[in-house]
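Q: Could you fold this chain for me?
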Amino acid sequence: MIDNALHLRVIENKDWATILFVISFATIALTKSVFENRFADFVKLIYSDKYTNIYRDSSHLKSSFTIALFFVQIISLAFFIQLCLSFFGYASKTDWILYIQIITLLIFFILSKFLIEKIIATAFDIEDFIEQFNLQKVTFRTYIGLFILPIDIFLFYNDNISRNFLLLLIAILLITNALTYLVSIKNYQNVIFGKLFYFILYLCALEIAPYYFMYYWFTKGIA
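A: Sure. Below is the predicted structure, expressed as structure tokens.
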């Protein structure tokens, strides 16, 4: 007599991710269509400072162009965080509930940080400088977010990624982010040196401490 063993077949639902990827590329295509010249300058950011020189006024921080691509950046970054958690065995990359939690945490973190920055900038009378400085940081990080998007797609639909490859990718992204931050400081070095004390306070309070506490919370949370 042959015993038939029944095995539960686990079907991973990836439709939600596919929809988000399509929405992201549709947003990029629409932004490119509406802001054709600006988008052309933006994609050259890696080797040209034309975009940062033209669109350096703080009013561009709230423009439709910046908001649309920032939306794509958030989707891309949330995917990358979940994929990293998945590859290191802390989560499933197809868990859409976890993705909602990650993207909600990201939006809350960014908006809270932005509001606190506004309060501190107003208190220190460096509001115009901080807004211009933030615009440049957002520009560079949005650029990195768009670069990560096709990598997210590759990692999401490929289950044979080595840990060394992912570690190398994370290292490259961290170094790139640090370099873009240094470029932003260099571009505003004259203003920074004029308000050096306030900038150091800003740096410690809003550019170092939040990430340290997030790292501490995360490492303790998964220990």
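A (continued): Confidence is low (pLDDT under 50) at residues 5-11.
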